[in-house]
Amino acid sequence: MLSPLVQLRVACGVCAGVAVGTTAFRLLVRFRKNRLWIDDILAAFSMCALTTQLVAIFLTPNQRNGVARYYLIATMFYAAIWSARLSIMFAVIRIARTLQPTRFLYFIAALFLLTWIILTVQVFWECEPNPSWKRMKMPQCTLSRGVPIIQIVTDVLSDSSLLVVTSRLFLIFQEKKLRWRLTVIFGTCIITTVVSFVHAAYLIEAKGITILTAAVVEDSTSLIVCNIPVIVTAIIKLRKQDTLPSSPDDLPNFCVPGTPVSETRPISATLIISGSGSHKYSP
User: Fold this and answer.
1) What is the pTM of this model?
2) Which UniProt keyword terms apply here (predicted)?
3) Cα–Cα–Cα angle for 269, 245, 229, nearest 5°?
4) Could you tell me if 94 and 39 are in contact, meaning their C-beta atoms sit under 8 angstroms apart?
């Protein structure tokens, strides 16, 4: 029977390994197509945060590194999950910026960043007033019930906002197959909300080492979901018989803002923009 610490490391290693692998594939695809943008940088940052968190988990806890290890795991948890959410938001902005004003989307992204900062600071103002946990054999701060409640609220609100803004964006596409694919791809962000409920439940019940497992699973799931659009798009494009535009990358002005439509690569799709008629492109 494996010890709880070994089980934790195995579970976290597997989950994080899948997340890191999908991110590496995403970055490779975007780099080869010369389409790296802010959303890819944020995904890479999330991968680095998750890797740092995993390294801290694999460190053997003791009195010397215990406190630093705990704070590193806690702060990297928020860094990984919120940078993944920001990556999804900037993927939406990347699509929408040639079709409609994006000021409101940037405002939501700023709220995501502010929430990330507040939740990170909350760890310190919860733990520092009561330093007794720092003398434990395996230091772990006991958080109040307000922390998981705030986590659930922010997770639900952020994921709901992603679903709303992407759903509105999908409505501008007349092509049903493209709209269905994008809806399914971006709709998977609801998975992170489900996983966050599990993590919050462990926080409320203070189930020790299982809290770390749930945290890494939530981070890994968020990063995998963040990478799904690029991975699915790459797989679809391997199907030679599928000639319909299957990726936001096929939209005019997608990578170079301000480029005239006539100078971009044509596509065989119809875009319907509310209040501005329809624009047709044909090969």
Assistant:
1) 0.79
2) Membrane, Transmembrane, Transmembrane helix
3) 135
4) yes
Cα 216 from chain centre: 13
DSSP-based three-state secondary structure for 259: coil
What is the DSSP code (8-state) at residue 135?
A: G
Residue bearing tokens 């709901």:
160
Residue among 13, 56, 20 nearest 222 (CA): 20
Lowest mean pLDDT across 53-67, 183-197, 258-272: 258-272
> Contacts by 39-43 with C-beta closer than 8 Å and gap 24+?
39/87, 39/88, 39/90, 39/91, 39/94, 40/87, 42/83, 42/84, 42/86, 42/87, 42/90, 43/83, 43/84, 43/87, 43/223, 43/226, 43/227
Q: φ, ψ for residue 274 (rounded to 5)?
A: -55, 125
Contacts (Cβ under 8 Å, ≥6 apart) of 248: 91, 94, 95, 182, 229, 233, 254
Coil, strand, or helix at residue 111?
helix
Task: Decide: helix, strand or coil at residue 15.
Answer: helix
Short-list 246, 227, 226, CA closest to 236: 246
3-state SS assignment for residue 59: coil
The DSSP-derived string for 210-229 is HHHHHHHHHHHHHHHHHHHH
Number of H helices, E strands in the chain: 8, 2
CA atoms of 283 and 281, how far apart (whole Å):
7
